[in-house]
Each structure stands twice: as C-alpha cells, then as structure tokens.
Amino acid sequence: MKVPLLDLRAQLRSIEAELKAAVLEVIDSTQYILGPKVEELERRIAEYLGVRHAIGVSSGTDALLASLMALGVGPGDLVITTPYSFFATAGVIARLRATPVFVDIDPRSYNLDPARLKTWLDQAGDRLPRVKAIMPVHLYGQCADMAAILPLARQYGIPVVEDAAQAIGATCPMPDGPRKAGTMGDVGCFSFFPSKNLGGIGDGGMVVTNRDDLAELVRRLRNHGAHPKYYHKHVGGNFRLDPIQAAALLVKLPHLESWHAARRRNAAYYDEHLRIEGLRTPEVVYRRQDHIYNQYVISVPRGRDELRVFLGDHQIGTEVYYPVPFHLQECFAYLGYQAGDFPNAEQAATHTLALPIYPELTPQMQDHVIAKIGEFYAR
C-alpha cells in the first residue's frame, strides 16, 4: 500500500472543476495584478479570522519580511524567536541585517518557551532597547502560549509578530476567550504554500492586523512602497499576491474547517492506535479543537533516520521538520552559538518525524503506517 506524506491529487478531485473555472475567470478578466479576486480574499480572510485588515502578499516569507519592515526592523536591531522552525522565520531577520536572538522551545509543543523568554528579557540589560520584535511560531498548527508571551511583550514594550504560516484557523485559549492564530499580536503572518491546510496552487501569503498604521504601511511596502503610484516615501518590494492564487484560495476557503476536522480525526486515530514504548505522539497542549495538525510529528526513542528509510522502503512518505536548528546552521555561525545551547530544539531535530495526516487519509492507510512502525521497532 502506498501512503504519501501529502496527496494533493486527492484534494483536487473534489474541487477540480470549480478550481479550473476560477483560474480561467482570472485569465479572461485580464486583471493579473492584485484586483478584485485579491480584494475578495482579503475580505474573506479578515472575516474568518475576525481582524480589521488582511493584506495579500506573495508568500509567507514575504509576509514576515514586510511585517518586520513595517515595524522598522533594521541593522543592529534584535528580534527574538525560536531556533526550531522553517528557515524563513530567522532568514527574514538576517535579510534586514538585524540579529536573530534564539530562545529554546517547550519540548511539549515545540513552540517558543515563555519561561525561557522571560529569563532572557529579565537578563537582557543594555540589549533590551535593541529588541524590536518578538516572533513566536505556531508550529505544526498548534499555537504558542500567547497567554504568557503577550504579557511579557507588553511589559517590555516589544511588538509581537506571529509566524502563523502553519496555523491558519488554530485557536489559543486566552483570558478573554479563544483567539485565532495570527490575531493576538501586533501582526500575524500566513503562508498559502500548497502543503498548508489552506494551500494555493503556488506561493502566496497574508499579513493580518488590527493596527491601521501597520496595515497601511504593509499595503505600500508590498508595492515597492509607492503611494500614490510612482511616489515612494518607503523602499518596499514586489510582495503582491497573484490573483490566480487568490482565486484558487477562494475556492478552497469554504472547505477549510472540514479539512481541519478530518486532520483532527486522523490525529486522534494515530493517538489511539500508535502505542510503542518510548514513542511520543504530538501533545495536545490545549484542546484538540484548537489544533489544526498541519503536521503530525512523532518523537521516537531511537533510530529516527533508519525508521524513515524503512518506511520509505514500504512506500510510506515521511519528513523531518527540521533536521538542523537555526543556531547550528552554517549561515548563522557568526552568531556564535554552539551545540548544546538549545537542548530542546536539538532533541526535536534529531528525534522527530512527520507522518501522513492529510484529510483524505483512510483508516486502512493509517493502519498500514502504524503496523510498519511497530514492525520496525519489533526488530
């Protein structure tokens, strides 16, 4: 039995006619830069998340980049974030010639640890005025502990940029009730990369905020900083969302909650049946309905890489997210971090493995995955 890590063809079968019609509508309109489809998607995403502003951009990476630019992050500034995420999280900081500052993760959620964040801030001394943003990541579709992170940010007067690339629709319990990922900080950033729960047919992203000033600035920055046309108060970039991507996402958006529910169902099935001594299934830190399971990541006691080869030999797709934490990446050697500085991130990098979790996965396919993992460790 073949079980891919992700099967976009299975999703396509249910929406193919509508998707192709939407793309053809854009082609026939000849409105190929921004336009009504992008504006409609921005309205729909803002309504879905309950925010005042949503600004379509060219990718999740550019959402992060434009957000930091809007906050004035630049050379000599510090941005605090996790050492364990997709590279864009730290890469955009370095691209602005600012310095990424890493704080270790909570081993339960793989998200930024608020206790370690507090320790860093309390001990920052003369570095504190240089901190221009805190960037928590809602990894794998489960929110970071924003109920603890936001008060720290407010205490020290630091803006918060939520990297919610993997978490559209995830929720976080807050003192005033559940809030959706990306809506709690000063600005939230989303990716519509095809593997995301809400994925396009290419690259795309979204910046959301309740701050009018940041929304206006991001809108300008995505179009080379121009306002009006050909007049530039700021230097921005070409960060515009393609209307073909907007059209595809408008077709998919109505299905998003049912796709979330299917991923939760599949996760619950793994949780119940994948029982091997020493193997840890993803911890539900809040409630299962808060988690959208963009990835289902297990932690194995030993032989992670050998297990991956074994599963691949049996046509089961897996992935390692992420094999090298930021502080050990060659391009960040200049920061001076060493192996052992962030033990929880390093443990996750060497022991975790993502299993198939996409909505169309069947119990029979999951049984095959579970049986083969059991067979590997029984050896």
Describe this structure in words.
The chain is of the alpha/beta class and 379 residues long. The protein folds into two domains: 8-254, Type I PLP-dependent aspartate aminotransferase-like (Major domain) (Aspartate Aminotransferase, domain 2); 255-378, Aspartate Aminotransferase, domain 1, CATH 3.90.1150.10. The chain is built from twelve helices and eleven strands. It has helices spanning 8-29, 36-49, 60-70, 88-95, 114-122, 146-156, 212-221, 243-252, 256-273, 304-313, 343-351, 363-378; strands at 53-57, 78-81, 99-102, 131-135, 161-163, 171-172, 179-180, 187-191, 205-209, 296-299, 352-355. Strands 1-9-8-5 form a four-stranded mixed sheet. It has a three-stranded parallel sheet with strand order 3-2-4, covered by helices on one side. Strand 6 (171-172) and strand 7 (179-180) form a beta hairpin. Helix 2 crosses helix 8 (243-252) and helix 9 (256-273) packs parallel to helix 12. The longest helix is centred in the N-terminal third of the chain and has 22 residues, at 8-29. It is globular and about 65 Å long.
